[in-house]
Specification:
InterPro entries: 5peptide_repeat (IPR001646), Pentapeptide-BTB/POZ_domain (IPR051082). This is Pentapeptide repeat-containing protein. This protein is mainly β. It has 2 domains: about 15-95, Pectate Lyase C-like (3 Solenoid), CATH 2.160.20; about 100-200, E3 ubiquitin-protein ligase SopA (Pectate Lyase C-like). About 5% of the residues lie in helices and about 25% in strands. It contains 1 helix and 16 strands. It has one helix spanning about 190-195; strands spanning about 10, 15, 25, 30, 35, 45, 50, 55, 65, 70, 75, 85-90, 95, 105-110, 125, 145. It has a 7-stranded parallel sheet with strand order 3-6-9-12-14-15-16, with no helix packed on it. A 5-stranded parallel sheet has the order 2-5-8-11-13, with no helix packed on it. The termini are far apart.
C-alpha cells in the first residue's frame, strides 16, 4: 500500500489500487488524470484537494469529509458515499454511475453539469448549491432537502420529488407534468412559477 503524502503534492497519470486510506487526512494535494480502484477513503478528510479528469471505481467514501475540494470532470462508478459530506466543493462536469449516494450532505459549492441520472437520492440534503444544467433525469429525490439550489437548465424529467423540500430553489425548467411531486414543499414564489408552467395566468 502507498502511504499518502499529506500536503502539497501533485500526482499526474497515476493509478491507485486497493489502497487503505481509512481516516487519513489530505490537504492541498492535486491529482490529474489519475485512477482509483478499490480504494478505502472511509472517514477520510480531504481539504482543498483537487481531482481533474480522474476515474474512481468501487471507491468507498463512507463518512468522508470534503471541504473546498474539487472533482472536475471526474467519473464515479460503483462508489459508496454513505454519510459523506461535501462543503463548498466543486464537482463540475462529474458523472455518477451505479453509485450509492445516500444519505449524502452537500452544503454550498458548484455541482453544475453533474450527471446523477437515475440516482437514488432519497433523504439527501443539498443546500445552497449551484447545479446549473445538472442531469437529474429519473433521479429519486423522495424526502430529500433541496433548498436554495440553482437548478436553472437542469434536466428533471421523470424525477421523483415526493415530499421533497424545494423551497428557494430555481424551478424554472421544471415541468410539473413530467415529475412525481406529491407532497413536495415549495414557497409562494415557486408556486407562481409552477402555475405558469402549467399554463395558468397568475394575476
Amino acid at each position: 500500500m502507498t502511504e499518502p503524502a499529506r500536503t502539497g503534492v501533485r500526482h499526474e497519470g497515476r493509478t491507485f489500487r486497493r489502497e487503505d486510506w481509512y481516516g487519513d487526512e489530505f490537504v492541498e494535494q492535486e491529482y490529474v488524470d489519475c485512477e482509483f480502484f478499490d480504494v478505502d477513503l472511509t472517514e477520510a478528510t480531504l481539504e482543498r484537494v483537487s481531482f481533474t479528469n480522474c476515474v474512481f471505481g468501487n471507491v468507498r467514501f463512507n463518512a468522508s469529509r470534503h471541504v473546498d475540494a474539487a472533482y472536475l470532470r471526474c467519473t464515479f462508478t460503483r462508489c459508496n458515499f454513505f454519510e459523506a459530506e461535501f462543503t463548498g466543493c466543486k464537482l463540475v462536469g462529474s458523472t455518477f454511475t451505479d453509485s450509492a449516494v445516500r444519505p449524502l450532505t452537500v452544503l454550498g459549492g458548484d455541482w453544475s453539469f453533474v450527471s446523477l441520472s437515475g440516482a437514488d437520492l432519497r433523504g439527501v440534503t443539498v443546500q445552497g448549491v449551484r447545479m446549473r444544467e445538472a442531469d437529474l433525469t429519473g433521479a429519486n429525490c423522495t424526502d430529500a432537502i433541496v433548498t436554495n439550489v440553482d437548478l436553472s437548465g437542469a434536466q428533471l424529467r421523470a424525477a421523483r420529488f415526493v415530499r421533497t423540500d424545494l423551497r428557494g430553489s430555481d424551478l424554472s425548467t421544471l415541468d410539473p407534468t413530467t415529475v412525481e411531486r406529491s407532497g413536495a414543499i415549495v414557497d409562494a414564489t415557486q408556486t407562481i412559477v409552477l402555475a405558469q408552467a402549467l399554463g395558468f395566468q397568475v394575476g
